[in-house]
Amino acid sequence: MNYSYLCQALAYNFKNEQNLVTALTHRSAGSLNNERLEFLGDALLSCIIAKTLFDQFPNANEGELTRLRANLVKRDALVKIAHQIDLGKYLLLGSGELKTGGEQRASILSDAVEAVIGAIYLDSDINTCQAIVIKLWKNLLKNLPEQIKDPKTRLQEYLQSQQKPLPDYRVLNIKGSPHAQIFEVKCIIAGLIKPTYGNGETRRRAEQSAAAKALSVLNVK
Prior knowledge:
By secondary structure, this protein is mainly alpha-helical. The chain has helices at 4-10, 17-24, 35-56, 62-73, 75-84, 95-99, 106-123, 126-136, 138-142, 151-161, 203-217; strands at 168-175, 182-188, 196-200. Strands 1-2-3 form a 3-stranded antiparallel sheet, with helices on one face.
């Protein structure tokens, strides 16, 4: 099979074409298949996307970055990348999968994308692999929100959408020296039996913490 168009879509020419062939080989087609490369590619993709988000959103917290990463590495995103490079036509499948349209099956396509990433890494280096992933994910990354909404904003918008009063934040205590203070804040919301509490090095961080807990209680995603 000629892989020139696929390599063009990937913007990468393999030094050892067998790496690519293995990445495209489903387990139904033989014992030498892409499962191990899928494992490697999954880890690489997660790491590369995490670093990209870390740089792109310097003010985002761990939870926000985790949610964004999950959206970018989930099956739906991988299938979009597979369609983007027309990966299905290059897959090597067993006769059973061929008969049932395995080349369009989401699980097979997403696994193959991860395997190709692993193959590129083995065939080159981490910097090359990272550059290719970022290029492939360019549109998905571009469509992310420019600014991630913090818990206080999300809570306020949720309550407004429900036509409920805004939350009432009250400082309960301030501990520590002037240069190492810890604020304790209570968040009171109409309709919630119990208030939520938060701690932080500033009043704002403490309020954000209390708001995040209120969102959790309200089951707001």
